[in-house]
Amino acid sequence: MIIGFVVFSFAYGLSAQPASRAMPWHGTPLQALAALAGAALGIGLYKLFRRYVEGGLDTEFPLAVATRELGTGLLFGFLLFSAMTGVVWLLGGIQFQGVRGMGNLWGMIALGIISGTFEEILFRGILFRQFEAMLGTWAALAITSILFGAGHIFNPGATWFSSFAIAVEAGILLGAAYMVTRRLWFPIAIHAAWNFTQGWVFSVPVSGGDAPQGLLITTRNGPEWLTGGAFGLEASVVALVVATLAGVFLLLRAIKRDGTRPPM
């Protein structure tokens, strides 16, 4: 587990560079292609790691179900964030002022691909799987959720509440998404679509930072519990409730389908 986490953290950093805004092809289709190539290399490295370091077979990335599970996850992530944004809009926390156009389309596609692929390999493919084998399902879900939230504490605009929200809403949701299939395609797609939808479709900060130039021109006004403040809508109470409910739904499906694992 330790070797895997170190290797894929390093690979995450390397793969993010060609897709970053510092490259000359930033804002062009090449940026998205660079991210796709980095993700493909990361998946290939994971297969090699499972085979030659762990000494087992890769069951997390079977190609036969990739199209179906990626498509389902992308749609699920898009609809989930759109539903949550709709609730915030009904409560007066976000206003739509017009359509910008393409904006930073290629950069947001690249962000979704790279963050979705490598963060799910790290937190679900490496940490969750190994903690579950040692300590059981519930301990693995709790530990990886806490670590996932803590991993966002140094993001721009982060607060203790934003990290708590990420731990609960995303930790449960993505952990359960992995448990439903015991594969990584589905959680990767949900993660990527969630980031892409909030950043490009609704022009909302993705886990802190500046608001991206996305498809829709939006402004957020109101208390931080509703808008999420500088961190973005992920830190709103609405996101905490909606995404956690979706995570519990997936968790119940996972328990019914495949059950849980006891400690070793």
Automatic annotation (TrEMBL):
- Keywords in UniProt for this one? Membrane, Transmembrane, Transmembrane helix
Q: Which Pfam families does its entry note?
A: Rce1-like
User: What positions does the domain CAAX prenyl protease 2/Lysostaphin resistance protein A-like occupy?
Assistant: 104-196
- Organism taxonomic ancestry: Bacteria, Pseudomonadati, Pseudomonadota, Alphaproteobacteria, Sphingomonadales
Q: Where are the transmembrane segments?
A: 32-49, 70-92, 104-123, 135-154, 160-181, 188-208, 228-252
InterPro entries found in the cross-reference section: Rce1/LyrA-like_dom
The protein in question is named Lysostaphin resistance A-like protein
Top-level lineage group: Bacteria
UniProt feature coiled coil, ranges:
none
